[in-house]
Structures are given as structure tokens and as C-alpha cells.
Amino acid sequence: MTINALILNSNPCxxxxxxxxxxxxxxxxxxxxxxSQGYKTQIFKEYVAYQFxxxxxxxxxxxxxxxxxxxxxxxxxxxxxxFRNKLLTAIHDCKLYQIPELPDRPRxxxxxxxxxxxxxxxxxxxxxxxxxxxxFHLEGSGRIHDVQHINRLIQSRVRRGFNRIQRSDTEIHExxxxxxxxxxxxLDYNVKDFYxxxxxxxxxxxxxxxxSDLG
Length: 215
Fold this sequence. Notes:
This protein folds into two domains: about 55 residues, no CATH class; about 140 residues, no CATH class. It is α+β, with helices and mostly antiparallel strands. It has a four-stranded antiparallel beta sheet, with helices on one face. Strand 2 and strand 3 form a beta hairpin.
């Protein structure tokens, strides 16, 4: 099967991965081999691992719980773009148009996962519905001292004025949680949702390939 045929028969994540201008790249040869054997989930896993093994070394892992809930993929991509811009301007203490180009800024990759949530719990019309939450993997930077520092930047400069994440935290709900990145726990963290949703209509929409710095 040719690279063009693979793209035509793939999902957006894999389409981004299998690039015409890099058809001879070892990664593409590996992914085409997996595709020919029907290993769709393994393609996604290999591509994600490639980012963390060869493109950049993540230092921080973040989880964002959006409120009000987000139910559409296009909408969550817009919110992720806004978050990305605010985060990078906070890290570099600059205006939006002054954000440095790669490699002079940290890379970031977003994954959007779905989970059943109770909508309108106090209403007689309450029901469970699948809503998105977000995970991101952030590269280290000389401008970020440690996980406490990036957390302070997010709390003081990113959340301020950001409607989806400015609601006050509670004991059982934190809008954003930042941890040190762990290869053991985070390398394949987002593969499980891709596998669980592989037969859903939007099951391929796990990695945010529009807002992520993919290599």
C-alpha cells in the first residue's frame, strides 16, 4: 500500500504522522508496516513514543478539567489554543506576538480525553454525558525552575481571566494539576483513551495535532 493510500484510509492523527515528504523516514516505514497488519492502536502508541524519545524530553505533565464542561472536539481545541498562548506568554513574560519560535521555547503536546460526567446534577433533568478533559506534556526550559514554579505561573497568570479554568478549586476539584513528568507513568498515559475509543465516530480525535508541537 502506498503512503497516499495509507493517508486516505487513516484517521487525522495517523494522517498527520504519515507525511508524503518523509515517506522514507524510518518511523514512516515502521508505521506503514503496523498499518498493513491492522495495528491501528500500535501506530498511535509508536508515534507518541517517538515524540518523547526523539523529538523532546517532557519535564511536566498537566491535567485540565474545564468548566463549564466541553462536549465538542473543535471547541476544546480552541480552548487549548488559548491556554497554550497564555502559558507561553507567561513562561517568556512576553506579548502573544513575541512568543519565540521553536526551538527557543518549550514544546507542548495536548491530548483530549472523554469521561462520563453528570450534567446539571441539581436539576430534575440531570444526565450523564461524555465531556472532554485535557492532558498536556510540557518540555523543560531554563525559564521554568521546577514544578512549583510552573504551577505558580499558571495559577497567577494563566488562569486569571480564563473563564474555563478560573473557577475556584475545591477539595474534590482542581482546575489544573501539574506534576513532574515520569516516563514510567506518562509515556503511554494517553494511549488508553485512543484504544478505548477506537470504534467511536470521533475515536481518532485524542491527540490535538493542531495545537501540539509534533515532530
